[in-house]
Write a structure and sequence with these properties.
By secondary structure, the chain is an alpha+beta fold. Helices cover 20% and strands 31% of the residues. It has helices spanning 2-26, 28-36, 49-54, 83-89, 409-451; strands at 93-94, 97-102, 117-118, 124-133, 136-138, 149-157, 161-162, 168-171, 174-182, 185-192, 200-203, 208-210, 216-219, 221-223, 225-233, 239-241, 257-258, 261-264, 275-282, 288-290, 294-298, 328-329, 335-336, 349-350, 355-358, 364-368, 372-378, 386-392, 398-403. α1 (2-26) crosses α2 and α1 (2-26) packs antiparallel against α5.
Length: 452
């Protein structure tokens, strides 16, 4: 009888070992999906057991001792174990794709600080951003020139995440160079040739009214302008360069060109009615654009004499003057002069529906729907919805949306496998317990018989 129980127990133990060995050897995807919860549906804590199991039950706590297995565990529990350690046994979740996004590509004469940088990769953040040109580091108050520049973006992980040394880098969803500094730090780098855009005038000079002998100042602003040139225009329309101003106004000192600001000192009465214009010059001098003219009015200037009325018998009634047309409101509600000419900048204006170029009066041009590239920021689970972030490839508009959990055929198969395994395991354990109990009872009976 004892031999019978012993053989039965041995068979049950062999069956249990066979199931566990098959499970470990099959390992890989089945073990991870069945017990490691890599699909996110169960909060399992045995995600790395399969590799440990294959190592021969060797030291699953990432410490020293135990079988070395095929994973290449290091004794110190650090990153000295080579690819096997950093890719499979580093504590936490691997960030295999280091992602960074620039708010826009560099443009000549654009301030460096205008370009923002963020990351959509889970478990990491932007630690530092540095721009370089041929002369070295570009400071935050610098502007891009026309030469090539390079950006370096350092990403660092938060607790529970790490960069494997096989991680790949992407800037605006395009592959870039990646320098692996450590499991917690990588540097992405990429070169750019700044685009050269046409000048966009933001502020035109304003007309001035001054007293004789005083000064008049004028100021303009614009985007992507490398330099400015000012000149005067006579009431008859003739242009006068600043350097030649004393040919018309001998007592007026030659104005200094303060780039976007012009100051004229000792304004004479004779300058009444003259206009000031500024020319915006783009990077590389590929285009020039004149501002609107600003008129100089000098107080005390003699008005043109009006002709004396001639005697007439009885003036015939003149027809009533028709009211002058008032400026029409623009799309934004502001008043737009009749002589307004639309100027659409190269930069994009956007909302959730799309992007377009917008004039200062509110008129839109070139409306297009967003071309969004989506990146998963947080995987969906049964308990919590996921998050997907999108960036428009054209204008840089950013948005996000929720991801619902969808069970795939693989996860369903894994769930069925897991249930079957635990049922078989439970039956085996119950059978072994019954055999042990029965064996103990039989042993006691034999002892009693012997005593009798």
């Amino acid at each position: 009888m004892r031999g019978k129980y012993t053989k039965t127990a041995a068979l049950l133990l062999l069956a249990l070992c066979f199931c566990l060995t098959a499970l470990g050897a099959g390992g890989g995807q089945i073990w991870e999906d069945g017990f490691g919860d890599t699909t996110g549906d169960v909060a399992g804590d045995a995600a790395s057991i399969s590799d440990g199991w294959e190592d021969g039950f060797g030291d699953l706590d990432n410490g020293s001792g135990g079988g070395s297995g095929s994973g290449g565990w290091s004794e110190s529990g650090g990153t000295d174990g080579g690819d096997g350690w950093s890719d499979g046994f580093q504590d936490g979740q691997a960030v295999n794709r280091a992602l960074a996004a620039l708010s826009q590509d560099p443009v000549a004469m654009m301030p460096v600080s205008d370009i923002g940088v963020n990351t959509s990769a889970s478990g990491c953040y932007v630690n530092d951003v540095t721009w370089y040109d041929s002369q070295g580091v570009l400071g935050g108050d610098a502007v891009f020139g026309t030469g090539r520049v390079r950006v370096e973006i350092r990403l660092m992980t938060i607790d529970g995440y790490y960069f494997p040394n096989s991680a790949a880098g992407y800037i605006n969803n395009s592959p870039c160079d990646l320098s692996w500094e450590s499991a917690n730090s990588v540097v992405l780098s990429k070169e750019y040739a700044p685009a050269i855009w046409d000048v966009t005038i933001v502020n035109n000079p304003k007309s001035k009214t001054v007293d004789p002998g005083k000064w008049a100042d004028f100021w303009v602003s614009g985007l992507y302008a490398k330099s400015y040139e000012w000149y005067l225009v006579s009431p008859s329309g003739a242009k006068l360069a600043l350097k030649d101003i004393q040919t018309q106004f001998p007592n007026v000192p030659v104005p200094e060109n303060y780039k976007d600001t012009l100051i004229i000192n000792n304004v004479p009465l004779e300058m009444d009615g003259w206009k000031v214009v500024c020319t915006f010059i783009s990077a590389g001098d590929i285009s020039r654009k004149d501002s609107q003219a600003a008129t100089i009015t000098v107080r005390g200037a003699k008005a043109s004499p009006s002709p004396s009325p001639s005697a007439s018998p009885s003036p015939s009634p003149s027809p009533s003057a028709s009211p002058s047309a008032s400026p029409s409101p623009g799309p934004g509600g502001q008043t737009v002069p009749e002589d307004h000419e639309h100027s659409f900048p190269a930069t994009w204006t956007s909302d959730e529906t799309g992007h377009w170029h917008e004039c200062s009066c509110g008129e839109r041009s070139g409306f297009e729907e967003h071309t969004l590239t989506w990146t998963v920021a947080r995987e969906a689970t049964k308990k919590e919805s996921g998050l997907e972030e999108g960036v428009c490839e054209v204008c840089g508009y950013q948005t996000s949306r929720e991801l619902s959990y969808e069970e795939s055929g693989l996860s369903t198969a894994m769930r069925g496998f897991r249930i079957t395994f635990f049922v078989v395991l439970a039956l085996l354990v119950v059978g072994i317990v019954i055999l042990i109990v029965q064996s103990v009872r039989d042993s006691r009976r034999r002892r009693r018989r012997r005593r009798r």
